[in-house]
Amino acid sequence: MTARNALQTRLEQGMAELEMALPADAVTRLLDYLALLERWNATYNLTAVRDPMEMVTRHLLDSLAILPFVQGGTLADLGTGPGLPGIVLAIAAPGREILLVDSNGKKVRFLREAIRTLKLENVRALQSRVEDVQGQYDCVTARAFASLGDMLAWGGHLLAPEGIWLAMKGKRPDDELLGIPEGFELRDTRALVVPGVEGDRHLLTIGRVRNS
């Protein structure tokens, strides 16, 4: 079995455990993304995860696990790093307009190369601090890049009135809940089981406080 076939087997097994059906070409494109990330990572140190098999579980499957909760036609992925979960979501559910935001120039150069190489339509990468980004989005994702309070203080203006914020965390961050700024509320806390990933994974859904 070639290395790529082994990665494909791990990815498809994980998707089966997640009970997830993706577009016909999604697995091939996810593996193309992984190969590009592995190549760039050797020079630019984009992720601490070096082993490709571990990248399948900790990057691809971890990102795919939140797909059922993503909603709306526009998404901003804040502190996206090398495109997690934003690029994975773009491949898994094409058609949504996605903005990838990171302040690190190396990572944004990689993102732009990935968008070009993978022909990801409706996806763009922006090098910026989160607080300087403009616009409003139906869904905002953030993968453990800051505390809930800091995330919302910096990027809360990006959430559309009826939008949802999906915060990906490890352990359930009960100590951070008191830091949620005024005007936002926790809607849901969900433990995620990610195939092949040990340790806790949680997804917190936050929205704007609804006027009664």
Fourth CATH level, the homologous superfamily: Vaccinia Virus protein VP39
pLDDT averaged residue by residue: 95
The end-to-end distance, rounded to whole angstroms, is: 59 Å
The CATH level-2 architecture is identified as 3-Layer(aba) Sandwich
Helix content: 25-40%
- What percentage of the residues does DSSP assign to strands (E)? 15-25%
Written overview of the protein:
The protein has helices at residues 3-17, 26-44, 52-64, 86-92, 105-117, 148-155; strands at residues 74-78, 97-102, 123-127, 137-143, 159-169, 184-191, 202-208. 35% of the residues lie in helices and 23% in strands. The protein has 212 residues and is an alpha/beta fold. Helix 1 packs parallel to helix 3 (52-64). The mean pLDDT is 95. It has one domain (3-208): Rossmann fold, CATH 3.40.50. It has a seven-stranded mixed β-sheet, sandwiched between helices. The protein is built from six helices and seven strands, in the order αααβαβαββαβββ.
